[in-house]
Amino acid sequence: MAEVTVFHDAAELELVKAKGWRIGFNNVMTRELERVWNLRTLLSHSLVWMVLINMILAMVIELVDSNTQLATTSLITYVLLSGVLVPMGAAVITSGAIIGEKKSGTAAWVLSKPVSRTGFVIAKFLAITSSILTTAVFLQAIIAFGQLSLAQHAMIPITGFISAVFTIILAVVFYVSLSLMLGTIFNSRVAVMGIPLALILIQLFLIGALQNLAEWLPYLLPGSLMEIGSSLVIAAETPYWPLTVIMTLSLSVLFIYIALHRIHREEL
């Protein structure tokens, strides 16, 4: 009589308690965090931002003579550097987040598992935003605060400085949301990266032109966050700043909504 061997699967099935968009969210969130929060990535990104922001700021501090000029010029330099370079970096870093996975087939493979498409996009937004804010905004802001306080031999006004950092945080949220939305619309990384970069540069010139039409008109654009941040650090009045904050947050939410709508309709 022939002997029959039966193999039993040792893996145990686990009951999935999450419902709706949270199905599989913990798994994709862990995957995204491991991707952007590994030691090598954090160190390399922090070093690059330190060179781009804090080293240039150190050179400006060395060039400025009087304490009065130092307080104004160096603070505004920090806001302008961060206000332009960090959004650009956010657009570049985020540009491949969805496009890369669509082209490699990883997105199709991941979403063939019990993972919601909403959770897939939200996990990318949270992981990328947290990484950029940590390496490019919070860490460099702490270093810049120390640099400026040491240069003036006194602590700089912390309220205005934190308010200025908040404008940079808003800009990061805006451009990460925009880049994720574009990643669900286009299949070319050039378009996903190029549109936000062009938008940043165009606003630098557009804001001046709009100001000639109406004083409040430039504040509809997220590019005004730099001017608002610069005004806050020198305690100047910015009467229309709520308009920019509301528009930036509203557009960011809209971009995420469109990204979710697109990813649900797309055949991966």
What does this structure look like?
This protein is mainly alpha-helical and 268 residues long. The protein is built from nine helices and no strands. Residues 1-10 have low confidence and may be disordered.
Summarize the structure.
This protein is mainly α and 268 residues long.
Summarize this structure as a short list of keywords or feature phrases.
268 residues, 76% helix, disordered N terminus
Average pLDDT level:
87
Q: What oligomeric state do the depicted chains represent?
A: single chain
Net shape: globular
Total of DSSP H or I helical runs spanning 4+ residues: 9
Distance between the termini: 51 Å
List low-confidence stretches.
1-10
SSE inventory with pairings:
Layout: H1 25-36, H2 39-63, H3 67-104, H4 106-111, H5 117-152, H6 158-185, H7 189-213, H8 224-233, H9 241-265
Helix pairs in contact: 1-5, 2-3, 2-5, 3-5, 3-6, 3-7, 3-8, 5-6, 5-9, 6-7, 6-8, 6-9
